[in-house]
Amino acid sequence: MANPTITPGPASAAAVNKRIRRGSIEPIVFNTLNAIFMIVLVIVTLYPFLNTIVVSLNAGNDTIRGGIYLWPREFTWQNYKAVFASGTIYNAFWISVARTVLSTVLNLFLTTMLAYTLSRREYVFRKPITLIFILTMYFNAGLIPGYFLMKELHLINTFWVYVIPSMISAFNMIVIRTYIGTIPESLIESARIDGAGEFKIFIRIIFPLCKPVLATIALFVAVGAWNSWFDAFIYTSSRQELSTLQYELMKLLSSSMNANNNPAVAAGAGMTREAAASMVTPLSIRAAVTVVASVPILLVYPFMQKYFVVGLNVGSVKE
């Protein structure tokens, strides 16, 4: 017996049409609100940096009046001239580049090697050594014992005081070890069957497969090394040739507070008398210093962006 065809009545047809219209409108509303939200988020995120660039390109006397937003009212390069007036800043730049590159390379290689060792279940001392490293994340001896340790190691007033203390990171080791745990054990066992030793397995298999998390860690280490100035203040302040860019910029920013009223202070910071006279406010110099310190490290990020998101998801999915 054939099933009778049910013809919807006027009321049910109206309900169906209403659901269809609602189903077609909802994506449009969602996409519109989502686009508005993302645009607002981009503006809120980029505005502080854009405003800093604008302030750095605006005359200091005019900056005091306020109202500088997205375009300089009185364009000038004088703030940057004051920053680069000191000849020491160029040498400090290369010192910062050298310490950033060496610290990043050594930290990645040695920390990954340590993480691979502590990820091996057959390693007897895996747990106690991991515990020791974790404790260093929560407890330290303090500034004065740390200084005496560097002195006993003959690292004071040497370039290597920037590099050696940062060669191993407990937090980075845990992150990399977690990522190594996601690598199939069958790859390592196959390499061992083929006669590969542990170091060869590390170089040929582990290190290449850890590229996403290593790119993320490299960005963190590089930013930390580039922005560091306190170690230069503590350990190498008596040797001007070992001063870092951030330390020189910090000294410039401190001296700019009194540069207008006391040209001798500006001369002590390496600035000319003319540059000091035109440095009207610490606000404009602070903006120029921020841009000079930020741009080099920002240029590195686009090359690591494709690995950055993958690396941040480390350990989120396991087989």
From TrEMBL:
Matches recorded under InterPro entries:
MetI-like, MetI-like_sf
Instruction: Spell out where the chain crosses the membrane.
Output: 28-50, 93-116, 128-148, 160-180, 201-226, 283-303
**Keywords of this entry:** Cell membrane, Membrane, Transmembrane, Transmembrane helix, Transport
Question: What superkingdom does the record give?
Answer: Bacteria
Per the record, membrane topology reads: Multi-pass membrane protein
GO terms (BP aspect): transmembrane transport
Cell compartment(s), UniProt: Cell membrane
A Pfam family: BPD_transp_1
Cite a GO CC annotation.
plasma membrane
- Signal peptide positions on this chain: none
Extract the CDD domains matched here: TM_PBP2
Task: Please list the residue ranges annotated as the ABC transmembrane type-1 domain.
Answer: 93-304
Question: To which protein family does this belong?
Answer: Belongs to the binding-protein-dependent transport system permease family.
Name the record gives this protein: Carbohydrate ABC transporter permease
Q: Which organism is it from?
A: Paenibacillus lutimineralis
